[in-house]
Design brief:
- By secondary structure, the chain is mainly α.
- It has four helices and no strands.
- The longest helix has 22 residues, at about 45-70.
- The radius of gyration is 18 Å and the shape is globular.
C-alpha cells in the first residue's frame, strides 16, 4: 500500500508554492538569472543604478554557474526541466496546483498553460493531484 500526503492551503499559499517550485526548478536547471529577478527590485527613477546592479549580478552569477555547471554555455542555456527526475516531479506538482487554481476560477477550462495537467515524461509514478474545495 502506498502512502499519500495531503496538504491543505489557501489560494495565496498555493500561489506561493507554485512560485517556490518554479524558482527551485530554475536554479536546479541553471536558470540562475531568475535570482536577480527575485531579489533585485526596480525602483522608478533609478533605472541606471538598477541596470548597473543587474549587469554586475549577471556577470557574477554566470561565472559561478560556469564553475558549478560547466556543461552549460551561454546565458540562455539550461538543462531543461525534464533532464532531472526531481525537477520533473516538482514541475508536475507545480502544474497540479496551478491547474487546480485555474479550473477553480474557470471551470470550463482555457488555453493557457495554467490548464495543463501533469504528464509523466520520464518519471514512472502516480501523478500529483490537487483540487479546490469550497468550505
Amino acid at each position: 500500500m502506498a502512502t499519500t500526503y495531503v496538504l491543505t492551503m489557501n489560494e495565496e499559499q498555493a500561489r506561493q508554492t507554485i512560485a517556490a517550485l518554479d524558482f527551485w526548478m530554475r536554479m536546479r536547471i541553471g536558470q540562475w538569472k531568475e535570482l536577480i529577478d527575485l531579489c533585485l527590485p526596480y525602483e522608478p527613477g533609478k533605472a541606471d543604478e538598477y541596470c548597473e546592479k543587474r549587469e554586475d549580478a549577471e556577470k557574477i552569477l554566470m561565472q559561478a554557474r560556469q564553475v558549478v555547471m560547466p556543461e552549460l554555455h551561454g546565458d540562455g542555456h539550461s538543462f531543461g526541466v525534464y533532464n532531472f527526475s526531481e525537477t520533473e516531479r516538482a514541475f508536475n506538482v507545480l502544474k497540479a496546483v496551478r491547474s487546480a487554481i485555474a479550473y477553480h476560477h474557470k471551470p470550463e477550462g482555457g488555453w493557457t498553460v495554467d490548464f495543463d495537467k501533469p504528464l509523466a515524461v520520464h518519471v514512472v509514478e502516480e501523478m500529483p493531484k490537487c483540487e479546490a474545495v469550497e468550505k
